[in-house]
Structures are given as C-alpha cells and as structure tokens.
Amino acid sequence: MDLVDALHISASGMKVQGFRLRIIAENLANADSVAQAPGADPYRRKVVTFRNHLDRELGVETVGVDSINYDQSEFQKRFDPNHPAADADGYVELPNVNSLIEMSDMREAQRSYEANLKVIESSRTMLQRTIDILR
C-alpha cells in the first residue's frame, strides 16, 4: 500500500465517522421526543453499521455505511395521565435513547475521526518530504 492509498482509506473512515456523529446528534436531539397520540411509538434510537468494500479503482478496501438500523430495545415509560399520548393506565412511552450511551458513542466516533485525520496528516507530511527529497 502506498501513501495515496492510506489517504483514501483514512478519508473514507472520516466520512463514515462524520455520518455516525450526525446520527448520534439526531438521537440526542430526539431523546425527549414522545409520541403525539396514544398507542403511537416515540422516537426510536438509530444505530449505524459499517462494512468494508473494495474500491476497484484504487485497489484497496475502504469502509462505508452498511445500514441504519433501529434499536429494538424497549421504550421507557413515565406516569403522566394528563399527557395526550398517555395510555389507558396513564403511562407515556419515552424514546429508547440513553444519553450516556450516546455520549460514549460520540466520544468513540470523535476519537476514530481524529485518528484517521492524524493518518492523513502523517501521510501528507511523508509525501511532502518525499517531494522535497526528489527536488
């Protein structure tokens, strides 16, 4: 693998981690979104999965978004009989978004993004030094 391939691989890693951060931000923004009608579901947490794929043009494996899935864990319930979305027992379903998990995922995505950025910076520096030597 040469340095240009490393740049492409790291760029694809940065792209998917940036996408992952957008999904995490959406989850956090909707952490308090409840259903608007009785029996309707509140916001359901989204999870991004990745996959490797062969970039035939470059001849290297890069990472991409495979799918966006919905977390199938149970919704939490809060007793609020005056809410318009309350069921017959007075409970309102809350989103299955846990802010602590989302913040942990955000930190992991941020670190992965930064690691890919460092690889790009290092590759760029090595390419520049190679060009300087050839002059």
Question: Spatial order of the strands in the main sheet?
Answer: 1-2
Number of domains: 1
Low-confidence stretches: none
Number of strands: 4
Order of helices and strands: HEEEEH
Oligomer: single chain
Biggest pleated-sheet summary: 2 strands, antiparallel
- Spatial separation of the terminal alpha carbons: 24 Å
Shape: elongated
Helix/sheet category: alpha+beta
Radius of gyration: 22 Å
Verbal overview:
The chain has 135 residues and is α+β, with helices and mostly antiparallel strands. The protein has one domain (3-134). The protein is built from 2 helices and 4 strands. A two-stranded antiparallel sheet has the order 1-2. Strands 3-4 form a two-stranded antiparallel ribbon. Helix 1 (3-29) runs antiparallel to helix 2 (99-134). The radius of gyration is 22 Å and the shape is elongated. It starts with a helix and ends with a helix.
Features:
two-stranded antiparallel sheet, alpha+beta, elongated, 135 residues
Write the SSE topology.
Blueprint: H1 3-29, E1 46-55, E2 60-70, E3 76-79, E4 91-94, H2 99-134
Antiparallel strand pairs: 1-2, 3-4
Helix pairs in contact: 1-2
Brief synopsis:
This protein is an alpha+beta fold and 135 residues long. The protein has helices at residues 3-29, 99-134, and strands spanning 46-55, 60-70, 76-79, 91-94.
